[in-house]
Design brief:
Strand content: 15-25%
Structural class: alpha/beta
Number of strands: 13
Strand order of the largest sheet: 7-1-2-6-3-5-4-8-9
Bound molecules: threonylcarbamoyladenylate, magnesium ion
Helix content: 25-40%
Order of helices and strands: HEEHEHHEHEHEHEEEHHEHEEHEH
Length: 328
């Protein structure tokens, strides 16, 4: 990434144009968070409903006070522990944050990304950039520059190519905007886990479970169908996979399989695709979206995904797999 490219990107952003940029999680569709027209263009290009607010990306935590009504101790602690990095915090917004960014809510989502290119861009720009994942609404987030082209093509004014995103899954989102004694709530799991956050805050963090306060309406990532390839995704328990594969094969279905474990028999025909996924959660998360994206291009009838363990390091992956497989 040359200085000239960063300079060009900053010029475009100042003119209200859109620049896709790499972060450690996924690629973001950047626009000046203080330019209402530019932010509206982001919604239009993504085909995203207006009530789905955007994350404001900052170069460093020192700028928080311009965007948050007040910076609480919990926010300070988490910023110190995890920024720059894959954590987004929802806080009460300051008076100057545009309604178009927050969907008219009194809160704003803030994140300081760690990717060196995102850092250089944000430092050079100096202000806040909205950065939703650079994909059409409800589709898979892009983890390479080529995937951004695949999703948004010509509609982006510039794409900064920072290679493959290391994490490959969107940031953890935690709601810290509540007053009084309410507990922080995780709105979207990511590689920073509940336990990681509890270790810093020394207080319990809630998961959204349908009973927790206001969580369902406010976190669009929680829509049933989200992060989905076009091909139908079926989640299959490991012990049931062999049988299902045989059944599908004998019915001449064209299907793909994403599995961490070997399948005993190998009854795959030429129409079928078998992808061995990594055993470790980090490696699996890194590859999940790029694998689903490339399998999607094969045009199979369905993708059978072997379910991953119900353990903390897999929570973000399980969440995205459930959403990818939700009925459309
Ligand atoms: O890793 C990430 O967070 C990536 C990279 C590019 O930074 N960005 C990303 O943005 O995933 P997006 O727009 O695809 O997802 C942001 C999520 C949405 O589900 C949105 O509804 C939620 O954050 N969000 C934003 N502002 C919010 C608010 N004030 N209250 C609750 N949820 C909010
Ligand atoms: Mg997104």
């Amino acid at each position: 990434m040359t200085d000239t490219m960063i300079k060009k990107a900053v010029e475009l952003l100042r003119e209200g144009k859109l620049v896709a940029f790499p972060t450690e999680t996924v690629y973001g569709l950047g626009a000046d968070a203080n330019n209402a027209v530019a932010v509206q263009t982001v919604f239009a290009v993504k085909n995203r409903p207006a009530e789905h607010p955007l994350i404001v990306h900052l170069g460093d935590a020192a700028q928080l006070s311009q965007w948050a009504a007040h910076v609480t101790l919990a926010v300070q602690k988490l910023a110190e522990a995890f920024w720059p990095g894959p954590l987004t915090m929802i806080v009460k917004k300051s008076a100057t944050v545009l309604d178009v960014v927050t969907g008219g809510q009194d809160t704003v989502a803030i994140r300081v990304p760690a990717h060196p290119t995102a850092q250089r861009l944000l430092q050079a720009f100096g202000g806040g950039l909205v950065g939703p994942s650079a994909n059409i609404f409800s589709r898979l987030s892009p983890t390479t520059a080529a995937a951004v082209v695949d999703e948004l093509g010509e509609q982006v004014d510039m794409i900064l190519d920072g290679g493959e995103c290391e994490v490959g899954l969107e940031s953890t989102i935690i709601d810290l905007s509540q007053d009084g004694n309410d507990q922080p709530v995780i709105l979207r799991p990511g590689i920073i886990t509940i336990a990681d956050i509890e270790n810093v805050l020394h207080t319990a963090v809630l998961k959204p479970d349908g009973h927790t306060r206001r969580s369902s309406v406010r976190a669009p990532g929680m829509h049933a169908v989200h992060y989905a390839p076009r091909t139908k995704v079926l989640l299959v328990e490991p012990e049931k996979l062999n049988k299902l594969v045989q059944e599908y094969s004998s019915n001449n279905k064209s299907f793909a399989v994403l599995a961490r474990n070997d399948i005993k028999h190998n009854p795959y025909g030429p129409n079928n695709l078998y992808v061995t996924m990594p055993k470790g959660a980090r490696e699996y998360g890194h590859l999940l979206y790029s694998t689903l994206r490339s399998v999607d291009h094969h045009g199979c009838e369905c993708i059978l995904v072997e379910m991953v363990p119900d353990e903390a390091p897999w929570s973000a992956i399980r969440d995205r797999l459930m959403k990818a497989s939700a009925e459309q």
